[in-house]
């Protein structure tokens, strides 16, 4: 059910192995919420067991890969730790996946984040990253694969405007856009949403594989140039 060549399989482009005495490997840092975190803080390798690990052990195996996802994070939570979690790490390539909690908190805790505020915060994060020397940006669409009647409303009422903001920010900053929502929705239509995200938000193993494949298909060229 993968939308692209599975990460790590023969035929996936190699971003380049580090060589003794040669240039340092490309540093790819991925930041976001629980979809990125995926247990990385309890993992001795700090990669988690989701799409970041699949990338790190597959097509990014020649890179230095850092996972800075934190479960539950919204854009403002990323901002609170941005200097330590991102800028201090000095990545060459920065991948950001955030937004679903900015939507979800509206429904489970009554804490709405207007799309305009989300976009303003996100824009400031990207600007500071570029100013600090990040060479390539990768923005991943936040997504929901509805499995409840309430989640069916999320797109029209909230998430759609935030995804539109991510598209604008990608164009504004020359970033790679990973159309996760679009492609995962197509897979969900074919295989069922629960096969990809049992609760509509957190990917299953198959969902993480699809996300890793999609990320590499969209961003692999940027990593090779990173």
From TrEMBL:
InterPro entries: Ester_Hydrolysis_Enzymes (IPR051532), SGNH_hydro (IPR013830), SGNH_hydro_sf (IPR036514)
Disordered: annotated span: 1-26
Signal peptide region: none
A Pfam family it matches: Lipase_GDSL_2
Ranges for domain SGNH hydrolase-type esterase: 31-210
Segments of skewed composition (Low complexity): 1-11
CDD domains assigned: SGNH_hydrolase_like_2
Single GO MF annotation: phosphatidylcholine lysophospholipase activity
Protein name: Lysophospholipase
Organism of provenance: Cellulomonas pakistanensis
């Amino acid at each position: 059910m993968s939308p692209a060549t599975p990460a790590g399989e023969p035929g996936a482009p190699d971003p380049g192995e580090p060589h003794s005495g040669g240039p340092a490997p490309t540093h790819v840092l991925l930041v976001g919420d629980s979809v990125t975190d995926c247990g990385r803080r309890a993992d001795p390798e700090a990669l988690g067991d989701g799409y970041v690990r699949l990338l790190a052990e597959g097509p990014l195996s020649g890179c230095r890969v850092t996972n800075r996802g934190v479960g539950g994070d919204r854009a403002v939570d990323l901002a609170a730790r941005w200097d330590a979690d991102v800028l201090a790490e000095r990545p060459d390539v920065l991948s950001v996946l955030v937004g679903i909690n900015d939507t979800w908190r509206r429904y489970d805790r009554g804490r709405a984040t207007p799309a305009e505020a989300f976009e303003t915060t996100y824009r400031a994060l990207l600007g500071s990253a570029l100013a600090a020397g990040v060479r390539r940006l990768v923005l991943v669409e936040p997504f929901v694969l509805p499995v409840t009647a309430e989640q069916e409303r999320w797109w029209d009422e909230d998430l759609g405007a935030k995804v539109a903001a991510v598209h604008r920010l990608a164009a504004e900053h020359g970033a790679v856009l990973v159309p996760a929502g679009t492609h995962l929705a197509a897979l969900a239509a074919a295989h069922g949403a629960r096969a990809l995200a049992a609760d509509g938000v957190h990917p299953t193993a198959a969902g993480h594989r699809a996300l890793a494949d999609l990320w590499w298909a969209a961003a692999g060229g940027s990593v090779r140039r990173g």
